[in-house]
Design brief:
mainly alpha
């Protein structure tokens, strides 16, 4: 029996046992911040118990995390936590349809090879110097990952990275990767190019997902939670005002660490690299109708997401016809357009179809629903007030230290748990702690959400890490060493940007 299986078996039992223990151990009343005795309702105790149960199952993956996300539908009505109608309403929240539309758009980008074209065009522009190639690969990966899942992006980019490593080895040694039995470890140039490219793909796929709401599931969890809890909408544009600068700072730093410090690349250029890139680009041929149609829908969609606040305020004849326009409406409209725009009308081929749609990551949408149901229950049942009453010892800590510690905990916790499940569990707790710690909720909630997507050390940390490790060409010590330093740098960058960027941009909100 493997260690992972044992952990799952323990978690399967520990979840309900922990929930029962917490429910019966919790008091029936407590002292609030003012010293007043406040009753702790049965629904509040049940909510905290269910939070522990779901966290245990999510973090140990005792069952599939999507299955855990269905637990509120069964348990909340039975335990008096929240009525069934209010519970299930969270599984149809607007952010879920925003991601659904994003998934369909990403599927079309992959179906017609637009992502691959972007990657090779980037290589064509940067040239054949190893460090520049890594920059091109990382830049293309990050851009695609803003719109396509980081898993799919990494799966598409890793074979391209391997082709470059293979080409370099053949040109330099006359032997391919297969003939070498992997990346040669005795030659620093060959080793560093291989590791720099592969780890660069993993890092860029995670960093790129920070750029948009649909780039990574935790982003959507945060947006919905913040609107649900504080009544403040974080629009697609407002998220990008934070996410894009994070990428513009973090990605070059990751590239410098990769190519100058950890895996310095002294090779002048890859012989024959330019010809190979040119050949691959020529194989792609001119843009086909599917690519052109996808690009058109993509461009219009991004335009509407960015300029929606302006469009929604336009008046025609004294009325505002676009007042109901939202990011989710735009996403679903884009998805529907892809189903009706023909590529070959005679053969009945459209930009996308249901055969492609059934392959979408539907489970992520269920995971969203479970996380938001849990967040709604914590808000409705006064969990925040109780958690806050337990945290008085932390009051008076410097705000920057609090933010730094929260970010560090989220980064390293994410190495071992699903970042989506982690954010769904932690946001209600952090929201309750923020007033006690003396910081505005936004200054811990948004940085902690970003931090949860910055796990670079372990193969289980993120799917891109797992895909790169799965090639068998990156050793665990190599991934952990590089990832540790990037984790530390990420903690510093996110903390700094919280005060340089997030505070000025969003100080008008909670």
């Amino acid at each position: 029996m493997g260690l992972q299986h044992r952990v799952r078996q323990i978690g399967l039992v520990a979840g309900p046992v922990l929930a029962l223990a917490i429910y019966f151990a919790l008091p029936t009343e407590y002292l609030d911040a003012a010293g007043k005795v406040v009753p702790l309702a049965q629904a509040t105790r049940a909510t905290l118990a269910m939070m522990a149960w779901m966290a245990a199952w999510w973090m140990t993956e005792a069952v599939e995390i999507e299955v855990t996300s269905l637990l509120p539908i069964v348990a909340f009505p039975m335990l008096g936590v929240m009525p069934l109608g209010k519970t299930t309403a969270n599984y149809g929240a607007d952010v879920i349809f925003l991601f659904l539309g994003g998934f369909v758009l990403a599927s079309a980008i992959q179906r017609w090879g637009l992502d691959r074209r972007i990657a090779f065009q980037a290589l064509k522009w940067v040239g054949t110097r190893p460090a520049a190639i890594v920059a091109g690969i990382m830049g293309a990966t990050a851009f695609v990952s803003m719109w396509v899942s980081n898993t799919a992006t990494a799966a598409m980019m890793v074979p391209i990275a391997l082709s470059i490593v293979d080409l370099s080895l053949v040109r330099r040694t006359g032997k391919s990767l297969l003939e070498h039995g992997g990346i040669p470890q005795d030659d620093a140039d060959d080793r560093n190019l291989g590791l720099g490219l592969l780890l660069g793909v993993a890092y860029a796929a995670s960093i790129g997902g920070l750029g948009t709401i649909i780039g990574s599931p935790p982003n959507g969890i945060f947006v919905r939670f913040y609107a649900q809890t504080y009544g403040v909408e974080v629009s697609f544009l407002k998220w990008m005002m934070v996410g894009i600068p994070v990428i513009l700072v973090f990605l070059p730093v990751a590239w410098l660490l990769n190519t100058r410090v950890l895996f310095p690349m002294r090779m002048r250029e890859i012989e024959g690299g330019r010809a190979w890139v040119k050949e691959e680009v020529s194989k792609l041929g001119p843009l086909n109708r599917g690519e052109r149609s996808t690009m058109a829908v993509f461009a219009v969609t991004v335009f509407l997401w960015v300029f929606r606040p302006l469009l929604a305020g336009i008046k025609f004849g004294g009325v505002t016809p676009l007042v109901g326009l939202s990011d989710a409406v735009i996403a679903v409209a884009a998805a529907m357009a892809l189903f009706v725009i023909p590529v070959d009308r005679k053969q009945g081929i459209y930009v996308t179809d249901w055969d492609s749609a059934v392959k979408l990551p539907w489970g992520v949408l269920i995971l969203f629903g479970g996380g938001m149901a849990l967040a709604a229950a914590t808000e409705a049942n006064g969990v925040g007030a109780f958690v806050g009453s337990l945290s008085g010892g932390f009051s008076g800590w410097p705000a920057m230290l609090v933010v730094f510690i929260v970010i560090a905990v989220m980064v390293f916790m994410s190495e071992l748990t699903s970042n989506t499940a982690q954010v769904a569990t932690m946001l209600p707790i952090l929201a309750a702690l923020a007033p006690v710690l003396g910081v505005k909720p936004m200054f811990v909630l948004l940085p902690s959400t970003i931090a949860a997507s910055c796990a670079f050390m372990m193969p289980v940390g993120t799917p891109p890490n797992a895909i790169v490790f799965g090639t068998g060409l990156v050793r665990m010590p190599q991934m952990m060493k590089a990832g540790f330093w990037l984790n530390i740098i990420g903690i510093v960058i996110i903390t700094a940007l919280t005060y340089v960027l997030i505070v000025p941009l969003l100080s008008s909100t909670q």
